[in-house]
């Protein structure tokens, strides 16, 4: 049936051997196996809320972010018009204050939750996850608080 | 005088349907090495045959150590899902002629599950997720003396997800499953969907709660890899979306 058969190895795939009898490969626990470390309940509505929030905030962000970009970068002289006077003029109106505040909170929470997903996906070790998420949450809280503070306490007569 | 007609007949009968194909198989044998190796096999095969036939030719005539799973050989037992030319398929449903035999055909184990040998993976995490969604009919009250009746429309509601053969082509094509293997995976959700939307079943709420897990349906990122991979043509991503929708509409 099958005639001329040559079997030629075309080389190692993953960079050669790393382990041998004296240096055995680390034991990897099978995923989803019930061990002593398995948390009892991992259910709850948090992931559902996060999932919903991503879609709802995304819809609102389309309007807020695109409107923001349009006003800041294209209309009325484009980016060159932006200066202290321009910002002071806009934040004199509660409408733009609310717009910017909403955009700040939604974009930050949306972006932070998105990055949380990315960290969950890509950070393999529990410790790496912990540190990356700690950094992420710190940066998020800091930026949201600072931004909110500035929007509410902005003083156009500052010298 | 030469008879062109006869010549033609002779030529035709002499033409063999066999062509030479290079099967490039990712070999792994933990008793020999901890690294896997691509190995090429040249075989003669009719392009109308399947990748499974090519593997059989190698195993039976060339190298008996080649290890893979297969049982029915007709696309119904779900044993032989493998990554063929970079795509998850059943070896018994993939014709050689459909995957460009001019180039070497790569065959490797499905991803995201521990390789035991060559093309055989440890399916235990996959079946653990399957068991976790309670893939059996749950009812309350007395057992009826006749079969449990259901209207044609009620049966139609979950028809698509009854077709699953648990081959793991979908779950092992999912990038979220590749990450840490904790995600329930499309196949488990498909089989939960099979009962959640069955009018005779009474544990739908319980199954939805199970899939409301931190590694449940909300980890799905709608990449559609599962739908592309399913050899049964199940609309896997759609089934997952329906479970998400059921979770949201039942609660709000
Ligand atoms: C302009 C309107 C926007 C819409 C409609 C939108 C929509 C979405 C949706 C639906 C997701 C979830 C994807 C999934 O679960 O698979 C997502 C993820 C994400 N979004 Fe947005 N978003 C918008 C703006 C933004 C902004 C302004 C930021 C940055 C601050 C951002 C950062 C992210 C990140 C980091 C992710 C996670 C990426 C991933 O899961 O792969 N998005 N977005
Ligand atoms: S849904 Fe399709 S790809 Fe997934 S296990 Fe079932 S038959 Fe295989
Ligand atoms: S051998 Fe049964 S599905 Fe392919």
TrEMBL record, chain A:
Record's keyword annotation contains Cell wall biogenesis/degradation: no
Cited SUPFAM superfamilies: Fumarate reductase respiratory complex transmembrane subunits
Any coiled-coil regions, as ranges: none
Taxonomic path: Bacteria, Bacillati, Actinomycetota, Actinomycetes, Kitasatosporales
Keywords: Heme, Iron, Membrane, Metal-binding, Transmembrane, Transmembrane helix
Protein name according to UniProt: Succinate dehydrogenase hydrophobic membrane anchor subunit
Compartments in which it is found: Membrane
Ranges that cross the membrane: 52-75, 95-115, 135-154
UniProt superkingdom: Bacteria
CDD domains: SQR_TypeA_SdhD_like
Automatic annotation (TrEMBL), chain B:
Source organism per UniProt: Streptomyces viridochromogenes
InterPro entries, per the entry: 2Fe-2S_ferredoxin-like_sf, 2Fe-2S_ferredoxin-type, 4Fe4S_Fe-S-bd, 4Fe4S_Fe_S_CS, Beta-grasp_dom_sf, Helical_ferredxn, SDH/FRD_Iron-Sulfur, Succ_DH/fum_Rdtase_Fe-S
Broad enzyme group: oxidoreductase
Entry GO MF terms: 2 iron, 2 sulfur cluster binding; 3 iron, 4 sulfur cluster binding; 4 iron, 4 sulfur cluster binding; electron transfer activity; metal ion binding; succinate dehydrogenase (quinone) activity
Cited Pfam families: Fer2_3, Fer4_8
CDD domains documented for this protein: fer2
Keywords, ordered alphabetically: 2Fe-2S, 3Fe-4S, 4Fe-4S, Iron, Iron-sulfur, Metal-binding, Oxidoreductase, Tricarboxylic acid cycle
PANTHER family, per the entry: SUCCINATE DEHYDROGENASE [UBIQUINONE] IRON-SULFUR SUBUNIT, MITOCHONDRIAL (PTHR11921:SF29), SUCCINATE DEHYDROGENASE IRON-SULFUR PROTEIN (PTHR11921)
Requisite cofactors: [4Fe-4S] cluster; [3Fe-4S] cluster; [2Fe-2S] cluster
Catalyses which reaction(s): a menaquinone + succinate = a menaquinol + fumarate
PROSITE patterns: 2FE2S_FER_2, 4FE4S_FER_1, 4FE4S_FER_2
Superkingdom, taxonomy of origin: Bacteria
2Fe-2S ferredoxin-type domain segment(s): 19-113
Residue ranges annotated for the 4Fe-4S ferredoxin-type domain, each copy included: 154-176
Co-factor binding comment: Binds 1 [4Fe-4S] cluster.
GO biological process: respiratory electron transport chain; tricarboxylic acid cycle
Similarity field: Belongs to the succinate dehydrogenase/fumarate reductase iron-sulfur protein family.
Classification via SUPFAM superfamilies: 2Fe-2S ferredoxin-like, alpha-helical ferredoxin
Lineage: Bacteria, Bacillati, Actinomycetota, Actinomycetes, Kitasatosporales
Pathway: Carbohydrate metabolism; tricarboxylic acid cycle
UniProt-recorded name of the protein: Fumarate reductase iron-sulfur subunit
Enzyme Commission no: 1.3.5.1
Entries under NCBIfam families matching the protein: dhsB (TIGR00384), PRK05950.1 (NF004616)
């Amino acid at each position: 049936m099958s005639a001329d058969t040559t079997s030629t190895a075309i080389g190692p795939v993953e960079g050669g051997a790393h382990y041998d009898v004296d240096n055995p490969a680390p034991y990897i626990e099978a995923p989803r196996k019930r061990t002593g470390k398995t948390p009892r309940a991992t259910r709850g509505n948090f992931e559902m809320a996060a999932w919903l929030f991503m879609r709802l905030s995304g819809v609102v962000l389309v309007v807020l972010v695109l409107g923001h970009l349009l006003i800041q970068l294209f209309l009325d002289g484009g980016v060159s018009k932006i200066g202290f006077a321009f910002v002071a003029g806009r934040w004199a109106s509660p409408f733009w204050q609310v717009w910017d505040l909403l955009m700040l909170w939604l974009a930050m929470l949306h972006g932070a939750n998105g990055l949380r997903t990315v960290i969950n996906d890509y950070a393999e070790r529990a410790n790496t996850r912990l540190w990356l998420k700690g950094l992420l949450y710190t940066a998020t809280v800091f930026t949201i608080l600072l931004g909110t503070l500035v929007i509410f306490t902005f003083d156009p007569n500052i010298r | 005088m030469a008879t062109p007609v006869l010549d033609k007949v002779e030529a035709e009968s002499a033409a063999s349907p066999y062509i030479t194909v290079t099967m490039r198989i990712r070999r792994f044998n933990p008793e020999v090495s901890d690294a896997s190796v691509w190995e090429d096999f040249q075989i003669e095969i009719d392009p109308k045959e399947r990748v499974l036939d090519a593997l059989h030719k190698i195993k039976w005539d060339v190298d008996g150590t080649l290890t893979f799973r297969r049982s029915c050989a007709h696309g119904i037992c779900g044993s032989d899902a493998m990554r063929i030319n970079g795509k998850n398929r059943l070896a018994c449903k993939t014709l050689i002629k459909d995957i460009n035999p001019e180039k070497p055909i790569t065959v490797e184990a499905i991803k995201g599950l521990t390789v035991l040998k060559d093309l055989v993976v440890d399916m235990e995490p996959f079946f653990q997720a399957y068991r976790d969604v309670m893939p059996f009919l749950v009812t309350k009250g007395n057992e009826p003396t006749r079969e449990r009746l259901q209207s044609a429309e009620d049966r139609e509601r979950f028809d698509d997800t009854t077709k699953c053969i648990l081959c793991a082509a979908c779950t092992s094509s999912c990038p979220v499953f590749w990450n840490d293997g904790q995600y329930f995976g499309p196949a488990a959700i498909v089989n939960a969907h099979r009962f959640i939307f069955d009018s005779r079943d009474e544990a739908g709420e319980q199954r939805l709660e199970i899939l409301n897990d931190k590694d449940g349906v909300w980890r799905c990122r709608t990449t559609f890899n599962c739908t592309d991979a399913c050899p049964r043509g199940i609309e896997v991503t759609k089934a997952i979306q329906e479970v998400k929708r059921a979770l949201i509409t039942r609660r709000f």
